[in-house]
């Protein structure tokens, strides 16, 4: 299995130079190759595992409990205006 | 050669919970921007989602209402993409194992009912809201909507025209309103639709489809589908090919255009959400939800037709909302002698007046019991239908009862044959020429005499008796 490092980097919004991509490609491929070993195991008759912890899903009652903490939460934002986050223009 | 249109619909519907899908932030509409957010719905590191039980129950209820199969085990996945209104960089959704699979909705068509398949309903979370208007190099982000629970309801590609698509959406919208699982207010974006559209020659495999994104009005959806169908047919007939793409409807210029996103943007790299274990519900829980399900619009329509003898049209009008159907049933309970009369007067007279006042049935100034008394007075011939309309106007205005108004204004119908005869005699005496013409064979003048007598009695003469006595005295 060969992965397209540039494409994955782009999807993840990670900027890679060509030399970094060249260095990472064999490393990632060897990780995937290792995981691929799993396909050697015979899983006939074994139910697929969707989650490693076989626990019941915790569920909340539908009550709004959170206070307005906008000022504190927005302290980490690079830029805000009138309570709105300001980001580089995105539009379709 | 003709073309066949193939349409499939994806509806995103906000579930009307008080708190978000995975955190305790309020979902109230119209709050100050970003005032209803917390580290969970802002995607801050180390925060864990905890599922809202009510969102699960309402999704199951919706699944039962569309005759779907409830998966007793379902799971959540991450759908990964980058956009500033999605702070985590992924949306929690159900990809592999949704809570509901299968189901159907019946729509009325001119050839009878048509059954349209529902593929699945899955739970997911809404993104925030981006604003671009009036801004130059930046966009503004409000994350109050981020994390509000959604249901995505995916149909089979079963619709064959824009009209069928709209009929499906209206049925679904009505069911959702009846179940109270969503406000489903389209203007507030609580009920949004993507339409997958393709064309083919009848009998051939599906053509390449395009996806019309994010429409929130029935009118725009119909326009967008019609436009897209024509565009595809013209393209193919001119020797071109339809390209699979997402398109946006521009309701100002009445045209659609492709979205400028790269193909890669659709590589969502779904994987199981490690922060949420399997969602298990028991058959007992599902049965309990089913037991609490209200009567659905289609069942109510059917019952109104068979039990009360209503026309399909009236049954449809009176089942538009649960409040209206309950009002009608209360009215029939108070005036059981004539359910059809109840339907006519409610649909035509009361709803018409409420519409002029910009009100719905829940804001009616008169109760079903008070309205029933008005119908009683017509039934027992105290007043005519014409006078009843005036009495209704006065009831709406003053809140007084029908009896109080009839009494105070002296509107009681005259059913005393002696009194009616003397009015008729006066009318005959005042119109000798018409009387002679009528007696000479000009039958059409009968209506003139009825009008004169009703006018002379200020509308209070019993119309059936006027007819009868006029015939006797003129003949």
How are the SSEs ordered, and which strands pair?
The complex is a heterodimer of chains A (92) and B (475).
Chain A: H1 5-11, H2 18-36, E1 59-60, H3 70-73, E2 80-81, E3 84-88
Antiparallel strand pairs in A: 2-3
Chain B: E1 4-14, E2 51-52, H1 53-65, E3 69-70, E4 73-74, E5 77-80, E6 90-93, E7 100-101, E8 104-109, E9 112-125, E10 129-131, E11 138-142, E12 149-155, H2 162-179, E13 191-200, E14 210-215, H3 218-237, E15 246-250, E16 255-258, E17 271-272, E18 279-280, H4 283-291, H5 297-308, H6 312-317, H7 322-334, H8 339-356, H9 368-379, H10 385-398, H11 402-409, H12 417-430, H13 432-439, H14 446-456, H15 463-474
Parallel strand pairs in B: 14-15
Antiparallel strand pairs in B: 1-12, 1-13, 3-7, 4-18, 5-6, 5-17, 7-9, 8-9, 9-12, 10-11, 13-14, 15-16
Helix pairs in contact in B: 2-3, 7-9, 9-10, 12-14, 12-15, 14-15
Instruction: Briefly note the structural class of the backbone of chain B.
Output: alpha+beta
Oligomer: heterodimer
Assess the beta-strand content of chain A as a share of residues.
Answer: 5-15%
Return the CATH architecture of the domain at 5-39 in chain A: Orthogonal Bundle
The pair of chains with the biggest contact is: A-B, 37 and 58 residues
Number of strands of chain B: 18
Brief account:
The complex is a heterodimer of chains A (92) and B (475). Chain A has 92 residues and is α+β, with helices and mostly antiparallel strands. Helices cover 33% and strands 10% of the residues of chain A.
Tell me what you see in this structure.
The complex is a heterodimer of chains A (92) and B (475). Chain A is α+β, with helices and mostly antiparallel strands. Chain A has helices spanning 5-11, 18-36, 70-73; strands spanning 59-60, 80-81, 84-88. Chain A has a domain at 5-39: Histone, subunit A, CATH 1.10.20. Chain A has a two-stranded antiparallel ribbon. Chain A is flat, with a radius of gyration of 22 Å. The mean pLDDT of chain A is 90. In chain B, strands 1, 3, 7, 8, 9, 12, 13, 14, 15 and 16 form a 10-stranded mixed sheet that branches. In chain B, strands 6-5-17 form a 3-stranded antiparallel sheet, with no helix packed on it. At the A-B interface, helix 1, strand 1 and strand 3 of A face strand 2, helix 1, strand 11 and strand 18 of B. Strand 3 of chain A pairs antiparallel with strand 11 (138-142) of chain B, so a sheet runs across the interface.
């Amino acid at each position: 299995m060969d992965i397209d490092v540039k494409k994955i980097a782009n999807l993840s919004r990670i900027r890679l130079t060509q030399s970094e991509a060249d260095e990472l490609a064999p490393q990632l491929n060897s990780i995937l190759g290792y995981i691929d070993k799993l396909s050697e195991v015979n899983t006939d008759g074994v139910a697929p595992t969707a989650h490693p912890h076989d626990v019941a899903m915790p569920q909340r009652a539908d009550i709004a409990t959170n206070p307005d903490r906008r000022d504190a939460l927005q302290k980490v934002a690079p830029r805000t205006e009138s309570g709105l986050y300001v980001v580089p223009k995105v539009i379709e | 050669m003709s073309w066949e249109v193939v349409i499939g619909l994806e509806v995103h519907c906000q579930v009307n919970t008080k708190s978000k899908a995975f955190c305790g932030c309020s979902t109230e509409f119209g709050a100050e921007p970003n005032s209803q957010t917390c580290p969970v719905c802002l995607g801050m590191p180390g925060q864990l989602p905890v599922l809202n039980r009510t969102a699960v129950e309402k999704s199951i209820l919706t699944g039962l209402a569309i005759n779907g199969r409830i998966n007793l085990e379902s799971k959540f996945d991450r759908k990964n993409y980058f956009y500033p209104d999605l702070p985590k960089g992924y949306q929690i959704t159900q990809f592999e194992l949704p809570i509901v699979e299968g189901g159907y909705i019946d729509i009325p068509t001119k050839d009878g009912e048509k059954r349209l398949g529902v593929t699945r309903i899955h739970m997911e979370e809404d993104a925030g809201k981006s604003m671009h208007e009036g801004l130059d190099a930046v966009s503004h982000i409000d994350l109050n909507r981020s994390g509000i629970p959604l249901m995505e309801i995916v149909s089979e590609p079963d619709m064959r025209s824009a009209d069928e698509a709209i009929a499906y959406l209206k049925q679904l919208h009505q069911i959702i309103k009846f179940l109270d699982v969503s406000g489903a207010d389209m203007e507030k974006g609580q009920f949004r639709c993507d339409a997958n559209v393709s064309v083919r020659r009848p009998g051939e495999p599906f053509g390449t489809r395009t996806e019309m994104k994010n429409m929130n009005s029935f009118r725009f959806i119909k326009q967008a589908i019609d436009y897209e169908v024509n565009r595809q047919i013209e393209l193919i007939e001119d020797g071109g090919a339809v390209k699979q793409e997402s398109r946006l409807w521009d309701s100002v210029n009445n045209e659609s255009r492709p979205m400028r996103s790269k193909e890669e943007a659709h590589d969502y790299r779904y994987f199981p959400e490690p922060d949420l274990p399997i969602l298990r519900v028991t058959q007992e829980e599902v049965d309990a939800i089913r037991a609490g399900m209200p009567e659905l619009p289609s069942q109510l329509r059917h019952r109104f037709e068979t039990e009360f003898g209503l026309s399909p049209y009236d049954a449809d009008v009176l089942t538009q909302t649960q409040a209206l159907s309950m009002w009608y049933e209360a009215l029939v309970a108070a005036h059981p002698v004539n359910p059809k009369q109840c339907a006519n007067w409610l649909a035509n007279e009361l709803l018409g007046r409420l519409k002029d006042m910009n009100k719905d049935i829940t804001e009616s100034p008169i109760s079903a019991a008070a309205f029933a008394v008005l119908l009683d007075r017509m039934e027992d011939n105290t007043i005519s239908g014409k006078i009843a309309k005036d009495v209704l106007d006065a009831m709406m205005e003053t809140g007084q009862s029908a009896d109080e108004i009839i009494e105070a204004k002296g509107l009681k119908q005259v059913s005393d044959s002696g009194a009616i005869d003397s009015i008729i005699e006066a009318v005959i005496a005042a119109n000798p020429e018409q009387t002679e013409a009528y007696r000479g064979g000009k039958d059409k003048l009968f209506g003139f005499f009825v009008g004169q007598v009703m006018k002379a009695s200020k509308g209070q003469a019993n119309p059936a008796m006027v007819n009868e006595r006029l015939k006797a005295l003129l003949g």
